[in-house]
Amino acid sequence: AGCEKEPSSYMWIYILLGNMLRGIGETPIAPLGISYLDDFAKEEDVPVYVACLHTIAMFGPIFGFLLGSLCAKLYVDIGFVDLGSIAITPQDSRWVGAWWLGFLIAGITNFLAAIPFLFLPKSLKKPEEANNDKTSFALLENKGTTRKMLPPAKPKPRKYFYTSLKKVLSNRMYFTFLCCSLLQFSSFIGFLTYKPKYMEQQYGQSTSKSNFLIGLTSLPPISIGIFLGGLIMKKCKLSIIGATKFAFTMSFLAYVIAQLHFFVGCENHVVAGMTVSYE
């Protein structure tokens, strides 16, 4: 009965709200950033720029795992207790690392990284429009004159959400790409979620070393692959169909090579009541 206590801390509410705000801030970066590049860059340079964007985005998880490895070595109450009085080590199952320290460092870094966005102009001139300013201005003037002569157009009917959603999902190319992305992210998230625990349980590694190994071995090759993919698309000048075939071939090869994971591992631990009897 002495172990049964009501939770007295409501700090989880701040963590929940912080993650919600972080998600709101991160959401526009991928779709709006890619659209920004697609609108104001040359067509042949867009694949490389998008590849650079995704490659840089992969550095975040890499540094995150390395930072997590460092924070896991520090005791959770660092700065509030005498570390000399702690008898357990990071290899002990009772050890809890300073998980909260990563949120502070990442928050300050995100704030500093957001400052350069304040200096971006509201709009840029497209490369093909830069040399045709006078022509474009004349066309706009003629368009304005014609619009004054015509009667006012009837207001268009308001489109509802389900109509737009139906139109988007009826696009076969987009729907296929969406299903492919869902499968890839589902497998990738499961990989990153359970691989640290697998390394800890099966190979006897500490949480700190597991995070360090994942950040060092898993994510850098992905970053290199993303950049090389954009470079190949630019050099070969692949069309939409060519890029689709290229993506399918690479994804299929990655799937085949990933089957080698089934041949790596150790025997399960002996657990009383599960793998052997209590006797």
Automatic annotation (TrEMBL):
Keyword Transferase: no
Localization (cell): Cell membrane; Membrane
Entry GO MF terms: bile acid transmembrane transporter activity; sodium-independent organic anion transmembrane transporter activity
Entry membrane topology: Multi-pass membrane protein
Entry-linked Gene3D superfamilies: MFS general substrate transporter like domains
Cross-referenced Pfam families: OATP
Keywords for this protein: Disulfide bond, Ion transport, Membrane, Transmembrane, Transmembrane helix, Transport
InterPro entries per record: MFS_trans_sf, OATP
Residue spans crossing the bilayer: 12-34, 46-67, 97-120, 173-192, 212-233, 245-264
GO cellular component, one term: basolateral plasma membrane
Superkingdom of origin organism: Eukaryota
GO biological process: monoatomic ion transport; sodium-independent organic anion transport
Keyword Translocase carried by entry: no
Family membership noted in the UniProt record: Belongs to the organo anion transporter (TC 2.A.60) family.
Listed PANTHER family: ORGANIC ANION TRANSPORTER (PTHR11388), SOLUTE CARRIER ORGANIC ANION TRANSPORTER FAMILY MEMBER 1B3 (PTHR11388:SF89)
Name of the protein in its database record: Solute carrier organic anion transporter family member
Species in which this protein is naturally found: Rostratula benghalensis (greater painted-snipe)
Lineage per the UniProt record: Eukaryota, Metazoa, Chordata, Craniata, Vertebrata
